[in-house]
Automatic annotation (TrEMBL):
InterPro entries: Papain-like_cys_pep_sf (IPR038765), Peptidase_C48_C (IPR003653). The lineage of its organism: Eukaryota, Metazoa, Chordata, Craniata, Vertebrata. One of its GO terms (molecular function) is deSUMOylase activity. Residues 32-196 form the Ubiquitin-like protease family profile domain. This is SENP2 protease. It comes from Elachura formosa. It holds the Pfam family Peptidase_C48.
Length: 226
């Protein structure tokens, strides 16, 4: 079935939701902290917060260091809004000591007022794709990030990127699964990242969301992706 979770795992998940105070720390790694209050956003119909999405993206990046995976870089959830308001200058220091162009895939979680979506740069194919589980277009997001890449490339590597070599595309409703409620967007973003970071086709559906929520609780507590 879509949502089979072993009993031992179910017990751990219930304990994470129920036993203790909201400020209890349930996971800490990569200089990030996840509290019980954060974990509770993974309850059914919960709205995922920055802590959960940032922790999950970091787990995706960690896994990508293993052999056989594309090299992945992920920006945190505050990057895009800062870039949008302050352009390249405002986020220049975010990549201090990092050459993002040495990676295969760059993940940019995007927070637009009350909705999460994901922008994916594939440096191998020179594509920038926007994944939105409500089917909204993100052409402006793609352009903003392409402009960022151009500035970053010029500054860090002294290489000019050519617009015409890049393909920008907002994924349509018929291309990727869509949510049917107001709360699952964050889970979609995490799972888009999970599949894309393994070069796997996105074959899950919205029916998988309750199962994914449970699985993510376990993965974050154990700091490893199943």
């Amino acid at each position: 079935t879509v949502s089979f979770v072993p009993q031992a795992m179910e017990r751990e998940i219930s304990a994470a939701f129920l036993s203790g105070g909201p400020e209890d720390i349930l996971s800490t790694a990569f200089k990030l902290i996840v509290t019980r209050e954060d974990i509770c956003t993974l309850k059914p119909q919960g709205w995922l917060n920055d802590s959960i999405i940032n922790f999950y993206m970091t787990l995706v990046v960690e896994r990508s260091k293993k052999k056989g995976y594309p090299a992945v870089y992920a920006f945190n959830t505050f990057f895009y809004s800062k870039l949008n308001s302050a352009s390249h200058r405002g986020v220049k220091k975010w990549t201090k000591g990092v050459d993002i162009f040495e990676h295969d895939v760059i993940l940019v979680p995007v927070h637009l007022t009350v909705h999460w979506s994901l922008l994916v740069v594939d440096l191998r194919k020179k594509t920038i794709k926007y994944f939105d589980s409500l089917g909204q277009k993100g052409n402006h997001v793609c352009k903003t990030v392409l402009n960022y890449l151009k500035e970053e490339s010029k500054e860090k590597r002294n290489i000019e990127l050519t617009d015409s070599e890049w393909t920008l595309h907002s994924m349509g409703r018929e291309e990727i699964p869509q949510q049917n409620n107001g709360s699952d967007c964050g889970v979609f973003v995490c799972k888009f990242a999970d599949f894309i970071s393994r070069d796997k086709p996105i074959i899950f559906t919205r029916e998988h969301m309750p199962y994914f929520r449970k699985k993510m609780v376990w993965e974050i507590i154990h700091q490893q992706l199943l």
